[in-house]
Amino acid sequence: MSSSTLLMHFYETLLASLGPSQWWPGETPFEICVGAVLTQNTNWSNVQKAINNLKSRDLLHPEKMASLDDELLAELIRPSGYFRIKARRLKNLLEFLRLECAYHLPDLSSQDLQQLRDKLLQVKGIGPETADSILLYALEKPSFVVDAYTSRILNRHLLVHEDIDYHELRDFFMDRLPRDVALYNEYHALLVRTGKKWCNKNNPRCDGCPLGSYL
DNA sequence: TTCCTGCACT
DNA sequence: AGTGCGGGAA
Asked: Which residues form a coiled coil (predicted)?
């Protein structure tokens, strides 16, 4: 079986087993961008607390957030961890949004994917995973998101080597799958859900895993 | 105590 | 390649 076919089998198996994910959790493109920064190396439940702190004060809007001083913003997002550096990263992203689209995120979607991705990666604090999360989930661009779970799952199924880097792994998917936003959206979500529940870092629980039959 | 949908800096 | 950033939940 080709690796392309196997990737689609993985997808269909996970979707049939777990059901659709309805990702990304977030009511607006901007909220999705904020969540993408806050969830860097951080449990989503902690991100949710930080988002709620902002939302309950009606601060989850670019203009309002940009006018907050860094100290207050950091305090509000404290539950998400790395709060000082993440406050700075949010401000960096806000400055990008101001310059690029005057805070009107849908305007970004007219830009070419590769060009927009390069620009996002120049923002301090926006790395490849955060950039692709914003592109895919906030802007609905067909940019596949990979993460620690993705490489772990594919490595344990002998599809890629252990130390594959981010862009190699992203290309692995994008070279083998149709460039489809809905497919990329759901595939990444399913891999994260699988990683959290079964494909743990130190103690994988292959019994009961939807992909167990592929081992 | 470990781990969490990373990234920048040295 | 190694390290700092960090609170919260299991």
From this structure: none
Name which of A46, A123, A36 is nearest A80 in CA terms. Answer: A46
User: Where do the domains of chain A lie, and which CATH numbers do they carry?
Assistant: 3-22+144-214 (1.10.1670.10), 29-138 (1.10.340.30)
Q: Count Cβ atoms below 10 Å from residue A150 Cβ, excluding itself.
A: 26
Determine whether the distance from the CB of A205 to the nearest atom of strand B is below 7 Å. no
A193 membership: H or E segment, kind and range: helix A181-197
CB burial of residue A48 (10 Å; 0-12, 13-18, 19+): middle
Alpha carbons A179 and A50: distance in angstroms, whole number:
33
Name the residue with the least CA to C1' distance from nucleotide B6: A40
